[in-house]
Amino acid sequence: MAHTSKQWTDQQILEEFREIALLDSVSNVLSWDFEVMLPEGAQPFRQEQSSTVAKLRFEKFTAPAFSQAVLESNSKDPHIHRLKKKMAEALALDSKFVAEKVALTMSCQSAWKKARAEDNFSLVEPKLKRLIEMTNEGVSRLRESKILKDQLATKSNYEILLDEYDPGFCAKALKELLGNLARETKKRIPKILELQSKKATERSRVKELLRMEIPKQQVAVNRVMQDLGFNFKKGRIDVSTHPFCGGSPDDIRLTTRYREEDFSDALYGCIHETGHALYSGGLPAELRFTPCGDTDSFGIHESQSRLYENNLGRSMPFFKYLSKVIDRTPEDLHLMLNWVEPSFIRVDADEVTYNLHVALRMEIEESLIDGSLQTKDLPEVWRQKFKDLFDLEIQKDSQGCLQDIHWYFGAFGYFPSYSIGNILAAQIFENFSEEHSSWRSEAECGDFSNLLVYLRDKVHSLASIEDTPGRIHKILNGQNLGIESFLRHVDSKYLG
User: Fold this and answer.
1) DSSP state of 8
2) Full-prediction pTM beyond 0.85?
3) 6-30, pLDDT tens digit by residue?
4) 156 φ, ψ (degrees, to nearest 5)
5) Which residues make Cβ contacts (< 8 Å) with residue 288, sequence separation at least 6?
6) 3-class DSSP state of 253
7) pLDDT tens digits, residue range 80-91?
């Protein structure tokens, strides 16, 4: 566009931003393909492609005429307000830095895959070290920004990174909330394990029923996703090392992983990612490709996936539905899929111990960012802290610091969002259950439409118009985020 800053209207600014958002969607598909379909020998070329798109996107976004128009705008429009913050952050960087970081991130991901497969952290350690250095360098540049320096002056690097995933949260309050959750969880685990010990023999029997041929799993997964509301005309499911949901609202890409000895891995990975997909696909069409049209709160996003996975997906009404999809009784499904057991892998963890995995990662990643923990010491520190928390001995790196991809694509500050999601999911589902008492009989019949309508209205419709705390307040009808609903859920299911 050939506008000068004085000529740009809100509409013209948003028109220019739409083209930038479309470049983001291109990057998303390239990233999905990198994880799912790309031949190994094509990885260097894909790194160049992705770096080039990132560079073009950055240069278009920070072009002098556009950036000046955004920063000088006096508009009260929430889109422009959010765009100003993003612009200030972008102008603190430069296209060379952005492109280099994208290339390093993709290189680090490739090294992580190899390191994880070979249980050898040293294969990725140098790249992770450099990625942490670049992450801190990026934060330092934000601090030097004339626009941002005052508001960032009292925040640590880690607190600034947290804001990238759940804007508006007070880091101190978040740490206190999640710390209380971890403490309350640990208090309950011994009693839960004691009660479960009485079912140990029966549990051994049903564990054998987790085995299922992969073709049968694929049929079941597709059926469940469709019944939950996933639109296969605007999405697809594939296989990857780590399950994820990517793409864009009109082109949603899900992945999972299949294990013949345990069908629940693929099934619940897909239910989880379907929650993400329904959220992305349910964002208001009129806000598509606008600054507030995406889902900037990872905690709210995670609440949708965890709600479907745990609050709905591990309930007895859901098991009665699922028993018609796969050849297992509701009672057996309930016993095999609602079992608390401290374990090594976060994505396989039960809903009770899961938040302890998050607490561990939050503590470690903060130490990595502030420099009190060196990357070379990460495996051993992980082993020690994990032993203290779970009383389990890690035998190999793939059970420990190599199990998650997040740090290896530069996502520091992401993990707390998972626990935010668990807490919020429990509150949302509790409110939904009170308003829609018929959900149990509907779920047994495979009718989940009222839940989706409720989430469309309460959550999806809000997009990113407000920051995370403001939206949560609206989602919960004026309630604040709190752990009480989650603890009631745990107590009712496991201690009732």
Assistant:
1) -
2) yes
3) 689 999 999 999 999 999 999 999 9
4) -75, 165
5) 249, 250
6) strand
7) 999 999 999 999
